[in-house]
Amino acid sequence: MADAFAEVKARLDVVEVIGGYVQLQRAGREFKGLCPFHAEKTPSFLVSQQKQSWFCFGCSRGGDIFNFVEEIERIDRGQSLVLLAERAGVELDRGPRQAGQAGKRKRARTLELNARAQAYYEHVLWATDAGAAGRALLEERRVSEPSAREFGVGFAPAGGPGGDALTRYLSTKVGAAHEEIIEAGLAHPPRGGRPRDRFRNRLIFPIRDDHGATIAFGARSLGAAPPKYLNSPETSAYRKSAALFGIDRAREAITAAESAVVVEGYFDVMAAHAAGVHNVVASSGTSLQREQVRYLARHAKTITLCFDFDDAGRAAASRAVDAVAAEGLQVRIGTADGDAKDPDELVRRDPAALAAMVAAAPPAWQVLLDAAIGGAEGGSVDVRRAAAERTVALLARIPEAATRDLYAQQTARRLGVGSASLLEDVKRSLREGGGRPARLVVKQPAAPPGDEGDSPVADDEPAPPVWESHLGALVVNRPSLARELVDRLGLDVSELVSTSVRRVLAVAQDATNGSFPLHLLAPAEQRLAASLLLRDMPELADDADIETLPRALSDCVRYVHEACVQRSLAAIQRELDRAKEEERDEDVQRLAAQLLNLATEAPHLRRTLASR
Hints:
The protein is an alpha+beta fold.
């Protein structure tokens, strides 16, 4: 698949592709136009034919031809590849062409049977005596008929002695073969007789894609019959790890708000929409997956997790935080006062409560940190030590170094420990757990360490420092430099502030054809890389002095390490000042020794140290 992306890019020109949507005018070596993604009167949308990339300096969107088509057509990465491959004349079938066509026909037939099954289930629910039990359950959960019809809710009858009511309907009314019904996940294979319906005596929730096609079903049993919830198996149309219940109803609201709310259950989604909170989806009967988060990242900058308010829901939310943070999105956790067990019950008690909870949802790391510290503040040494161990495990999960440092400082204040010691334990945890990032190096231009650049980054991550932006620009324009930096200079990537730049560097190491693979980055990282790709890089010019690039790469080691040491120096100094105020003599001696070690490690900082 990666080769297909490269082949399509090699055959198509970014100016021709984008020119089909945007009126472009040449501006020097580049092309300019009015951005199609936000209202503007002065062109800030730039397209580089030389670098086959685009970027808008007004809204900070950017990327390659695939990113543009995804944004303008509101489709996903795979769909953009299919569309552009057809234009480029690139064959995407992994196997024989006949097999590819057969797979498309099978998926189309599955979608057709799902649509007919959904209509059948809905008819049973509202127009037959068999659906009375389903209607009673909806009434018990206070789901109105208009709300249920909005989501296509239905009811699967018991099906008589053979348990095959749907199978018989699809066979006689649609002409479906038993094998097709089984392949669509609507029936179990026969055991000596006829196929048996997969869903029987259950309330049915259609799971749809973002265009409204029914790709699968979720089903809730009546009473205590196990299992309580049952989903379709994976089919040619359905992958659990990618599906989101309610996305067809929520996508426009998510895009408008640039924020998505993720809940656990079908009733939670319907209750939220009925209460006027429309940017809500559920993870479709599974824990939140990276693929689901990647889809949401195309439309949202923030994800708020509003899982059940019990221990299991809190544990699920904690796991989901890692999946969201790994994609570079801001993540929050909704917390509710009172004894409501889930968002559905919260809405039934107070229709306005969910919107208020979402609006007030704190950052997820703060929620998890508060839980890890618990009631240890002001406690005994043993109690605070146990809490510190829990917070170290939590801090090691935070991908952004700056965010990790801030929460470490908060933890240190609350538990009465040194933040430098806490961070040292975090680093040890990362090393021992195999989570330490790869070793890489960055480049520092003329600006002093600590100055911030103007490179756009998505979400709420601060713009990378000038020297990190410059290094990122070097490797996106010439990816082979990343491998050279790793092998020859070996600076630890954890010393970088920007998580997006770290990811850019890591991806550059795997580039094999001389072109930076933008499609491997998350949306936030793609926008940064696109802006860096359009920079002029004198070090990489054909007429640059032969010593310019090696000198710049060597300088980068010094600047990266110096900035890291300065941050550590400031943190230790703050702890030392506090220890002096509180007359903690042992801590004063320990922290003073750490300052001395830093001076020994970085002689060029001795003057700064001596002045303190």
